[in-house]
Write a structure and sequence with these properties.
two-stranded antiparallel sheet; 12 helices; globular; 373 residues; 4% strand; Glycosyltransferase; mainly alpha
Length: 373
């Protein structure tokens, strides 16, 4: 959701209006990318129905027990109802195991930053914008409830979304929500509040940035599934735009460090490939490309995986002959077959990231000759 909002905010001219909000033909006066983003925001609002309630997961891996649409999902023992998981900040059982949740920040801060940016992008709709601002503040407080990260729960299989960082989410929230947070402070002179409190909030963002300057997967051989989500530090970008001088250079330097780590790994192979072939490797590739774009400027599927990962995954069956058999290797494999969920499963978050990158490149192409890029 955040990537879609950011893509429209940064490159509004490249998006058109050809579909209604429900995806059917016909214009509705809103860019199609915003229809998608609003769907995401509305879902997040439902996942944070009360100030002290937040959910991060609908259903679990029992979804994979067969093919059916959600309203006909009877695999949970309660008719067609599915479980919803609270963001509690505490470890939760996942079948025979417990996940390693340590806090509420990673999820709640993502909510807060999406609400903050959404309130700006949809400011023409005052009622909706105000509701997002209100939820931004409650999500911001929820993130501070217990500093740490939240992981998902799994019942039958060992695979979860095993996120293990949150400082990037905190940094982004402080960076993007600095001005929206002002309206929740005590009333007074607005200019004086901005003068006093904006620097304090940005200092908090800078502190979080310094504690995790480089997204940890950059330059490594492997990572757990979604261990370092969202694969790119969005906070560095939003923060750098508000800084000047040495502070701005420091933040951009963090991006440079990550790029250098990937290059150090890439230059050792013939394909200059420095992104690890882990599950959802295309997401990492897109995120890295965006990081390079941001440093320069101041619909995906999961993608190839290591052969060792593919050979040890549970429940994979190819339903058609492998047309890429001659190109497969022990290093990495990719199958154009719906039975291989590890390389061919559609990935919504990666596609949203790619939309930002494609929008940036299209905006470059629309600039007139001689116009500064």
């Amino acid at each position: 959701t955040y990537h879609l909002l950011m893509a429209y905010r940064d490159f509004p001219a490249v998006f058109g209006d050809e579909k209604q909000a429900n995806g059917l033909e016909g214009k509705n006066g809103m860019a199609d990318v915003l229809d998608e983003a609003k769907w995401g925001l509305d879902w997040l609002l439902r996942m944070h129905p009360k100030d002290d309630w937040m959910f991060n997961q609908v259903a679990d891996d029992r979804d994979h027990m067969g093919m059916r649409i959600p309203k006909e999902d009877s695999f949970y023992g309660r008719g067609f109802q599915r479980p919803v998981y609270f963001v509690s900040g505490e470890p939760q059982q996942r079948g025979k195991f417990m996940n390693s949740t340590t806090g509420t920040s990673s999820t709640a801060a993502k909510f807060a930053s999406a609400f903050a940016l959404g309130s700006t992008v949809f400011r023409a709709n005052k009622i909706y914008s105000d509701s997002l601002n209100k939820k931004m503040f409650s999500a911001f407080l929820f993130a501070d409830k217990k500093m740490g990260y939240t992981q998902t729960a799994s019942v039958k299989s060992p695979y979860i979304y095993a996120e293990e960082n949150y400082l990037d989410d905190i940094e982004l929230t402080f960076a993007i929500a600095a001005k929206p947070l002002m309206q929740f402070l005590d009333k007074g002179n607005r200019q004086e509040k901005d003068r006093v409190f904006n620097p304090i909030i940005l200092r908090s963002s800078l502190k979080a940035a310094s504690e995790e300057p480089v997204t940890p997967w950059l330059g490594t051989d492997t990572a757990k599934h979604y261990q370092w989500y969202p694969f790119i530090n969005l906070g560095h970008y939003e923060l750098a735009k508000q800084l000047k001088g040495k502070e701005r250079d420091t933040i951009l330097g963090y991006y440079k460090q990550g790029i250098q780590r990937v290059w150090n790994k890439a230059k050792g192979n013939a394909f200059y490939r420095g992104v690890p072939f882990i599950w959802c490797s295309n997401n990492l590739t897109t995120s890295f490309a965006i990081q390079c774009y941001w440093y320069k400027e101041g619909g995906l599927v999961d993608g190839p995986v290591y052969g060792s990962i593919y050979n040890n995954l549970i429940g994979i069956t190819l339903y058609e002959p492998d047309e890429y058999a001659a190109f497969q290797s022990n290093l990495a494999v990719y199958h154009d077959d719906y039975g291989d969920y590890s390389t061919n499963e559609p990935t919504m978050d990666g596609t949203a990231s790619l939309i930002y990158l494609l929008a940036a490149k299209e905006a470059e192409g629309q600039k007139k000759p001689g116009q500064k890029k």
